[in-house]
Request: fold
Amino acid sequence: MEPSVSVAFAQINQKVGDLAGNAARIVQAAALAHEQGHDVLLLPELALTGYAPEDLLLRCQFLADQQAALQSLQETLAGFQDLHVVLGHVVSTDKGTFNAASVFLNGDNLGTYLKQELPNYSVFDEKRYFTAGRKPLVFTVRNHTFGVTICEDVWFASAATAARQAGADTLLILNASPYMVRKHETRLAVVRRNVCDAGMGAIYCNLVGGQDELVFDGHSFVIDRQGNIVTELNSFCEAVGRIQVSSGQLQALPSLPFGADQSVPLQIQENEAAEAEIWRALVMGTRDYLGKNFFGKAVIGLSGGIDSAVVLAIAVDAIGAENLHAVMMPSRFTADISVNDAQDMAQRLAVRYDEIAISPMFNSYLEALAPIFGDLPQDTTEENLQARIRGALLMALSNKFNAIVLTTGNKSELATGYCTLYGDMVGGYAPLKDIPKTLVYRLASWRNTQSAIIPERIITRPPQLSCAKTRLTRTACLNMRCWTHPGASDGTQ
Ligand SMILES: Nc1ncnc2c1ncn2[C@@H]1O[C@H](COP(=O)(O)OP(=O)(O)OC[C@H]2O[C@@H]([n+]3cccc(C(=O)O)c3)[C@H](O)[C@@H]2O)[C@@H](O)[C@H]1O
Ligand SMILES: Nc1ncnc2c1ncn2[C@@H]1O[C@H](COP(=O)(O)OP(=O)(O)OP(=O)(O)O)[C@@H](O)[C@H]1O
Ligand SMILES: NC(=O)CC[C@H](N)C(=O)O
Reply:
């Protein structure tokens, strides 16, 4: 019987540009893998710089700092005897800048792989920064040979085929693959087609965490050469997965927790609702945007409507009720039930809640404008003015308390222009910017199945749609109402 080889793969949350912090997490993962007696540790794509480093790569100083951090890391990793660490980093030479991965063992570099397929579509812009590599890299631990590739490489056949031809039995894939609904199924299909069909098993290690407008889901997996899933990690949590390779067979070992937040179970839950996964994506995206930009607190305009209710619920799950401030800013047009529902929601979540009446400010504006407006009829102008007064108040609270304003607009509103510039668009991060209104309702209902934090009337009440507020035609407004809330087609408020 052949001696077995064991591999750990660390789904960790790195931060673009934070070389010291990223290196510390890499060392922590290596210590864990070494302590467990593993032979190989696989890390995500560009684990040292974080993904995507974008224009930092155009700064000579950043490249020099990264090189120094890499050197120092290589020395530290030498302390974990006999552990092969497959680490993603940048290589900069007179031939170009490369998205690379090196295999470090006992202080030596066994080889460096250069990414061959550079994605340059959608959110990816790698051709702006990187030059493509051409050669496979393999290394052997006892009798088992591993190939190394990086993310987009496995979306094509050639890099995996070259690794197989160079003798690889199992392909190690370093990834920074952002989340989209159902992306996991696509990744599995791609790896089955390009890696398993070439005769190899695959260990797919993905980055996890929010980075500006992207959220990486992790959801790393191991698949054998027949295309069967051997083990997979849950999405939206840091974790270390582990396998053993024995007589060419890949066998799962129990996964290990990693990092401070261990609220998400490591293993995939059977039959989980799609909303549960999307909710975790929104919570992680919000938590990491705030955390990585040094905001401990947030402020939200709470209207008693569905969007601000869902944003508040996401924010509570992300940073805790004690770090949130909800502000209701009623005008003379605000219905009592809106105020009651906002109060009720804040109370259920134990969030600090304040009311600031905006009528006096609104009247002052109207008075100041009266000589110019004359007897022109009221229209969107006055409505937008209210939204802008609220925006100014929220930004004042933001400046004074160093709390970021969470914008409540959803994707349907942003796509159709149904929002007020310098008004309800105010703020630094919009958790719902990629969530259409129909999904906002589904998410609210799903979150309430976990604990009833959103007053039911906020979910069932037809959206407060005002056609005067938008530049959409009346027909478009009615269509939108049907589209967003099928139950509300009579135009009532
Ligand atoms: N990473 C981030 N992501 C998302 N949002 C972020 C953020 N960092 C701050 N924010 C938000 O931005 C807010 C801070 O921005 P902001 O409220 O604009 O305020 P502030 O950062 O103070 O920016 C204004 C600066 O420009 C100066 N200024 C302004 C206008 C004219 C002149 C002149 O000399 O002519 C000078 C002014 O003296 C002040 O120093 C934060 O409270 C927070 O809400
Ligand atoms: N009375 C209010 N008090 C506090 N914030 C408000 C108030 N009215 C509006 N806002 C803020 O402006 C955003 C947009 O308000 P709008 O009345 O256009 O409703 P909406 O787009 O349907 O959002 P929501 O579903 O949260 O009411 C709200 O999500 C909220 O953050
Ligand atoms: N970083 C990458 O190369 C990512 C590209 C890839 N197609 C993905 O989203 O999974």
Q: What stands out?
A: Residues 5-257 form a domain with the Nitrilase/N-carbamoyl-D-aminoacid amidohydrolase fold (CATH 3.60.110.10).
